[in-house]
Each structure stands twice: as C-alpha cells, then as structure tokens.
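Continuing the series of single-chain predictions for the mutant panel. This is the parent chain; the variants come on the following pages.
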Amino acid sequence: MRKKLALSAASILISLLVAEIVLRILGIGAIGRGSPWFAGGSHPRFLFQPDAASGYALRPGFRGEEIALSKEFKVPVAVDGQGLRVQPYPAPLHPGVLAIGDSITFGEGVPADSIFSAVLEKALGVRVDNAGVPGYSSAQMLGRLRRYLPVLHPRAVVVTLSPTWDRERCVAPFVYKDGYIVAREFVDRLVVLDGSLYLYETRRLPPLGIVTAYAKRYSYLARLALPALSDAARKVILHRPEDRPTEAADVETTARNLQQARQLASQSGAAFLAVMVDDRGEGFRRDRQLLQQRLGELGVPWVAADDLVSGDRWSQLRYPLDTHWNAAGHRAAGEALAPRIRPLLSR
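Parent structure:
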C-alpha cells in the first residue's frame, strides 16, 4: 500500500511538473498587466491615491498605461497637477463644462483626444474638463464636484453614470488598496506580491489563503487552476436566491445624489445635466426608467444615451468583451451631447 501511494504521489507530482513546464513554454498564465487573476483590473498601480472626500481619487502627475483584461486596448493615461485626466485643450482657457462620472467619463480604453469630453470641447469651442474617475458612485462624484466647482467655475456640469452600476456602487463602493481600487468585499483577501494584487482563494483558513496567493504568484498552473476550483466550490456551496426586480426605492440614493449635485452646480452658477449611459439589457433599462421618473419628480434635468444614439448602434460602439465605450462610442456620444449642452452655456 505504501509503495502504491508513493507511486501515485510521484505520478501526480510529475504530471503537475509537466503541466507547469508546458504552460510556461506556451506562455499561458504568464504574469502581466491585463491578466484575469490580476485584481487591479485594467488600471496601473498608483493611478489612484487615498482621498478624504471620496475614498480615492486620481493621483496628480501620474503617467502609465491602461491595459484591458480582454486585451482589447492598451492606451496611455496621464493625470495633470489638479488630478484631472490630461487631454488636448484646443479651446481657450475660460470656464466651460465640467464632466463628472466614472470610467466612461474618464475614457477607459480610449486615447485622451478621443474621449467624449475632448469631442465636446471641439464641438462647443469651450473648455471641457474631465473629472471622471473609474469606479466612482454618484456619492463619490459629489465629493469630486465640491472640490472642482470653486476651482474651475464651470458654466455647465455634466454627470454621466449608469443607473444599474451606480445602484450597486452606492451599496458597495470600490475602495483603495495599495495603489489599486478593489471591490470592498475582497479587500481583506488581497495581498500585494511584487507589485501585483493576488486574491486569497479561501477566507476561512487564513494560513491556507496566503499559500494560495503565493502559489499564484510563482506558478502558472496555480493561477489557472486555483480560481477555477474556487469558483466551482462556491457554485456547489452557495445557493443564492434569484434577483428580485428593481424597485423605485433602489434608485432613490442615486436620484438624491444627482439632486444634490444639481443644487451644488446651481449654487456655483452652473447649469446641470445628468446623462445615463446606454442600456446593457432589460435590467439596465428598468433601472434607467425608474431613475428617469424619479429625476423628473425632483426636477433634475437628464438625457439618456439611448435617446441620443439609436440603441441598436451601441453594440458597435462598445468593446465587445470589456464593454466600455470605444473611440467610436465616445465620438458618437460627444457629437450627440453637444446640441444638448450648447444652450446650457448661454444661460
């Protein structure tokens, strides 16, 4: 029996070693930006820094690259001294438009001169400052707005968000972790090894968890196998109830935040417009319709991207896997928004 067990163990070890060698030769599971086990997502380390008002913000003076997990984009990203994304400014330096939002406004996956804020500036002929920050909820956008209104004195404020994403982020916002932003539910299960974030595959046994993190750091096979095994175990153990349909109360926080954003803009002498990004399914559509109804009751001006650009076009205006707007999507949104924003600047 001992010989059989020893032979079995040796056979398993040899098989694992061969698999590791093959993966290394083929480059499958190699460490690199944009890897699916890399918890930092598409964002380079230290693009963000802690922020008292919003939890985190863009790091002034940063230079780096955004690389998609899907490998669909690899674009340079730069942040100016005020903590705004750097973009070309062909218009004169006069108060114009302040764009607030999440990764859509920030322009994730798109060169700086193609972001809808840059497209708007060319179309309107006024300065458009991009204060978008990836992962932001409308609550965090309020902190951003309070910071820049007295500095930039915009004539119009445009807040862009997804009702569905914002509803989720208001409940569970992203948080700062060692130069990255991560989901709050994972923050205590992440460890930085050689500048990359690795996730513990078990939280019940901390010593074993740290072993899985180190295993993924050094083994190609572990990076592929451990997350797959963990996901399979969760599917067997967890029995989550079916998601219930969204109700009006679910979007109330977003509606109130946008109402407050409009009040802040008004107190600063700026016009206000909320822009809702394109729907990604029936759930998104329902959330948007509920929010639109509530904003109408609160007197908050809004416009939906699906009303600006035909809904069936959006599938061609997003990255298929990453789902952020591509350059064509930003151009379409910017050109469609310009006629809606131009009257606000003349008030």
